[in-house]
Amino acid sequence: MRIVLVGPPGAGKGTQAAYLAENLSIPHISTGDLFRANMSQGTDLGKQARAYIDAGQLVPDEVTIGMAKDRMGQSDAVNGFLLDGFPRNVGQAEALDVILKDEGVKLDAVLDLEVPEDEVVKRIAGRRVCRRDSAHVFHLSYSPPKTEGVCDVCGGELYQRHDDSEETVRTRLEVYHTQTEPIIDYYRAQGLVVTISALGEVADVTARAMEALKQSTEG
């Protein structure tokens, strides 16, 4: 299967992508992984991306598209893939259509993870991270520390990252609504969009997604 995963920040795309890719036996291709791999390997695209990032600029679409095209062309993606974070806008979606058409294949579904905006803010703004070890993460509502402001594991101070502040989250949501959400309408016009609720336990959301994908492709 060839799937694009879409959803706002805090929808759990990374978590669901990993489980879905494993269940479907296809590679999980995320934009973050593409950038890290290309920059660490020193590819031409990686060098271009690093130059923009070091200059504090956004990486142009053509660089991201080039990385995605290379990754989708690797042997483990011959029978399918799950794209997470790409395409990020309609221009990238149009480029993806061209890439797939040139390869003689097409997308099977675009899975849209739906989460109310207030829940997104609650999920992200409630996170607290340990200053001693950033792997120790808590949540004020879902997994609170035993002592407020103190890491259960090592006793380090818990703090809210700048990226997790409510103001930053709402800014990220606005960017999502403006840049990425339009691809849902773009793909809906092609009859590819499958929307599910991303509320509830991780396993329940995964089961919901698998069933929706199954019905979509069988239909």
TrEMBL record:
The GO annotation for biological process reads: AMP salvage
The residues the entry assigns to the signal sequence are: none
**Can you say where in the cell this protein is located?**
Cytoplasm
Q: What is its main location?
A: cytoplasm
List every stretch annotated NMP: 30-59
> Gene Ontology cellular component?
cytoplasm
Job description of the protein: Catalyzes the reversible transfer of the terminal phosphate group between ATP and AMP. Plays an important role in cellular energy homeostasis and in adenine nucleotide metabolism.
Record text about domains: Consists of three domains, a large central CORE domain and two small peripheral domains, NMPbind and LID, which undergo movements during catalysis. The LID domain closes over the site of phosphoryl transfer upon ATP binding. Assembling and dissambling the active center during each catalytic cycle provides an effective means to prevent ATP hydrolysis.
Q: What is this protein called?
A: Adenylate kinase
